[in-house]
Amino acid sequence: MPLLRQLEFAFRSTGILPVGQPGVSPGELVIEQEGSPQLVHPVPGKMPTGPTAGTAVLLQTARELLRAHGADRIARELRVEWNSRQKTTAGRADYCQKLISLNPQLFEHPAEIDRTLRHELAHILAQFRAGRRRVLPHGAEWRQACCDLGIADEKRCHNLPFKVSESARRYVYKCPQCQRDFPRVRRIMRAVACLACCRAHNGGEFDARFRLKLVRL
Predict the structure, then answer these.
(1) pLDDT of 156
(2) pLDDT, mean of residues 182-193
(3) CA distance linking residue 59 with residue 79, whole number of Å
(4) Residue 188, by phi and psi: left (phi above 0), alpha (psi -120 to 50) or beta?
(5) pLDDT score of 129
(6) In the Cβ-directed half-sphere of 46, how many Cα atoms lie within 13 Å?
(7) What's the chain's average pLDDT?
């Protein structure tokens, strides 16, 4: 049974079936992480509560993928959880704890659950292969692991329109070009530019002219 069908069965068995949010288009938000400058879109809304079903299905899938690539030991130790404390990240991988944490907001985007699982699993697999040698979070080893796990075109950052409560978004940034506001939970610590303006005036590439500026704290 395909993973999404298994998840749907698991959700129905708990009386909770994920429903996509109407009126919100994917691709409105890009969350920046470590590395090169990133592009973002503003997303209003409140943080929804999410179910915690389907964990056994995800864990089984993850373990089978690891075993298929020679990581039997890690497969036996691996754990998968839904973590409601994650606000803007889709998932997180902790190699030391052998733990993959997923954002419950993924239940509003069920088609992205499998890809997110594989994205985080690629971190685990990449570090397992490297042994004691530390690898870059999204370096060559991770990219190779993504290819092996069937997501060769995977990006470092997701573009899902995750909602965050207004009270939690303490920082407000503004694009100097279009004057749109970008509320954020955390202070931006790297170069981040307005995606819409970069697309309109620089072919979608990062342009320092549209770098976001902090206007309210």
Answers:
(1) 82
(2) 83
(3) 7
(4) beta
(5) 96
(6) 3
(7) 77
Distance CA 137, CA 143 (A): 10
CA 15, chain centre distance (Å): 26
Task: Calculate the CA dihedral of residues 59, 131, 90, 200 and round it to 10 degrees.
Answer: -140
pLDDT in tens, 104-154: 999 888 989 999 999 999 999 999 999 999 888 889 999 999 999 999 989
Beta partners for 148?
A: none
Task: Give the up-direction half-sphere exposure of residue 95: CA atoms within 13 A in the CB hemisphere.
Answer: 18
What would the two tokens of residue 126 be? 């990449």
The string over 190-217, giving b where at least 16 C-beta atoms fall within 10 Å of a residue's C-beta and e elsewhere, is: eebbbbbbbeeeeeeebbeebbbeeeee
Please give the model's pTM, rounded to 2 decimal places. Answer: 0.56
Domain ranges of the chain: 3-10+48-148, 169-216
Superfamily covering domain 3-10+48-148: Metalloproteases ("zincins"), catalytic domain (3.30.2010.10)
Q: CB atoms < 10 A from the CB of 28, how many?
A: 17
In this structure, what DSSP letter does residue 35 have? Answer: S
- Rounded to whole angstroms, the Cα distance separating 13 from 193 reads 43
Tokens of 94: 């902790």
